[in-house]
Design brief:
10% of the residues lie in helices and 39% in strands.
Length: 598
């Protein structure tokens, strides 16, 4: 950590630039503090200046230090020791104001230090009120010294509100930092609209590409010599980042690396590890201060990931979250991670155990972090359970699932092994059932009443390709087949191979939506609703077990040809006999009629 020797400005957290005005003589007893840049800021600020230390200016140094009128030294020393025992632990009630000031000057965490002064009991008396003018806030008649300047306004979204410790020696103007950098992440849910439709949640099939958009603004870098701007992204295991898909824009113009210019770099693996936290990747802006003239303009980053075979089908989903690391103090130059990577702040020593949901814990340098901005992608699964009219499992069936967007959906494969902890029993027809044998059904079981139990092991394999619109699979020996990794959409399930002796079922329409409860679909709730319709039947809703929606597919036995001894054969003989008898009667009748004619 190095102290940046800004003239007469030793500690600022929320005020970006300090510009002392020329002071006459070596001593100034009536300085004016001006807080600039009011134009364009609609907020109503309530600045107050608390006198902490006073002194006499001698060659740009305060001498003859004394405690100010708005601080309780004893309480301050106690709070400083609590805040940082390593630095301030040696202070006692007998410590002089100069001993305290020497420790305060150049302290590495000015924002944290300023907050110590803001703790109950530290500040006393009536502070000086900074009045609002037409273009600035100001207060006159301040004795030279150190002041805690507070803004007691109620901050809005993204506004900076923090106490600021300033040294005022002569007339001084400061530029406030009204806003902090923010970062918002969204998913592209419809790219056919103008503008494209964005949201913080979506659904996808395994193999689908998920497109992301990050938005921020180029911050005000007034007073900075360098500026950190690092995007830290953490993806769930079910998402595979595409590092070739990254694009960075400022005000709609893309920043393209090449031709000897590198605007940003992408860190992955060990290079994207901060403290004990492993991020999927980081986008580190190179020499970001070069964009200072673009302050206030939109900064946009786009990239994509693919939902992979590790996708979570539970209500947890497949989250992706991001936060921004940025510079927040122009008066301290923070060290870069290394000489080869100066644009990323050097990680600090994180607590043990580490707290990845508090990314600020990973840095010691004077940098700021935004809250996480998170999005989520959901996917689900359907199970086919093939049975006969008596709900006994059937094997030998193959199904094809068709639908737009099927890219690399998983299909199940199951094996059964003998295991005393198993829940399946073998049947003599080669299938397995969870129903235990009884005296009445024992003859259907391999082993009868003594049938052994078997354990089911289900694995999944990727099927299909990036251009696939269908996937096929055969049911296992328990009549089961699972298609895993399906997003919202309408699918057609067709039986392409039917068990011998059974009729082929009509195609089944499966509709997967997020409409279980109106308007309940969010980044924490997939709100799945799954319905099936067999042929022209009325659709019916199906429920999930272990986050898998089960369709029971019933096959009826087909019609058989008449066999010997069957009623059909007997009926044929009866009808044949009647025909023969009729022929005899007709012949006799004709002969009698011929005799009469003679």
């Amino acid at each position: 950590m190095k102290t940046n020797k800004k003239t007469l400005a030793i500690l600022t957290a929320g005020l970006l630039a300090v510009t002392p005005m020329a002071a006459t003589g070596l001593t100034a007893f009536a300085s004016t503090l001006t807080i600039d840049n009011v134009t364009g800021d609609a907020s109503t600020h309530q600045y107050k200046a608390y006198q902490i230390i006073t002194g006499t200016k001698t060659s740009d140094v305060l001498t003859g230090l004394a405690w100010g009128s708005n601080v309780d030294p004893a309480v301050l020393i106690t709070e400083l020791k609590t805040f940082d025992a390593t630095t301030f632990g040696g202070l006692t009630g007998a410590s002089t104001v100069k001993e305290v000031a020497d420790l305060l000057e150049g302290y590495a965490d000015p924002e944290g230090l300023a907050k110590v002064f803001n703790r109950p009991g530290v500040l006393t008396g009536t502070p000086a009120t900074v009045s609002k003018g037409s273009t600035n806030y100001s207060v006159s008649g301040l004795a030279d010294g150190w002041y805690l300047v507070k803004d007691d306004m109620t901050p809005g979204s993204g506004e900076a509100k923090s106490p600021n410790l300033l040294q005022i020696v002569g007339d001084t103007t400061v530029t406030p930092k009204y806003s902090l950098p923010e970062l918002t992440k969204k998913i592209v849910v419809d790219n056919t609209t103008n503008p494209v439709k964005l949201d913080d949640h979506n659904t996808a099939d395994i193999g689908d590409k998920v497109d992301y958009v990050l938005t921020s603004v180029v911050p005000d870098m007034t007073g900075y010599d360098t500026y950190f701007f690092v995007i830290n992204d953490k993806m769930a295991d079910g998402l595979t980042f595409d590092n070739t898909s990254v694009h960075v824009y400022i005000d709609g113009t893309e920043l393209v690396n090449g031709g000897g210019t590198t605007y940003y770099k992408i860190d992955e693996g060990d290079a994207a590890k901060v403290g004990n936290v492993q991020y999927t990747f980081q986008i580190v802006m190179n020499d970001f201060i070069q964009h200072s003239a673009d302050k206030g303009k939109e900064l946009k980053v786009t990239y994509s990931a693919t939902l992979n075979s590790n996708a979570d089908i539970t209500t947890t989903g497949n989250p992706n979250k991001v936060f921004l690391t940025y510079s927040n103090n122009p008066n301290v130059t923070a060290d870069g991670e290394s000489t080869g990577n100066p644009d990323e702040p050097k990680p600090g020593t994180p607590p043990d155990p580490d707290t990845p949901d508090n990314p600020g814990d990973d840095y010691d340098d004077p940098v700021g972090v935004t809250p996480w901005s998170d999005v989520n992608t959901f996917t689900t699964a359907i199970k086919i359970l093939k049975v006969d009219n008596d709900t006994n499992p059937l094997k030998g069936a193959t199904f094809q699932l068709e639908g737009d967007g099927i890219a690399a959906v998983l299909k199940s494969s199951t094996t059964f092994t003998e295991d005393t902890s198993g829940t399946y029993y073998p049947l003599t027809n080669g299938t397995y059932t969870k129903t235990a044998p009884t005296a009445a059904t024992a003859d259907k079981y391999t082993g009868g009443m003594s049938a052994l139990t078997y354990k089911e092991t289900t694995t999944f394999a990727v099927d299909g390709s990036a251009a696939s619109t269908n996937i096929s699979g055969a049911v296992d020996d328990s009549g089961m087949l699972i298609f895993k990794g399906l997003g919202a959409g309408t699918y057609t399930l067709t039986e392409t191979v039917t068990p011998a002796g059974y009729n082929t079922i009509a195609p089944i329409t499966v509709n997967i939506s997020n409409d279980k409860v109106a308007d309940a679909f969010s980044k924490t709730n997939p709100n799945w609703k799954v319905t099936k319709k067999v042929g022209s039947d009325t659709p019916s809703e199906i429920t999930a077990t272990d986050n898998i929606y089960e369709l029971q597919v019933i096959n009826a036995k087909g019609s058989t040809l008449p066999t010997t001894g069957g009623i059909g054969t007997k009926l044929f003989y009866i009808i044949g006999s009647l025909l023969v008898a009729g022929s005899v009667v007709l012949l006799v009748t004709k002969k009698r009629m011929g005799v009469r004619e003679d």
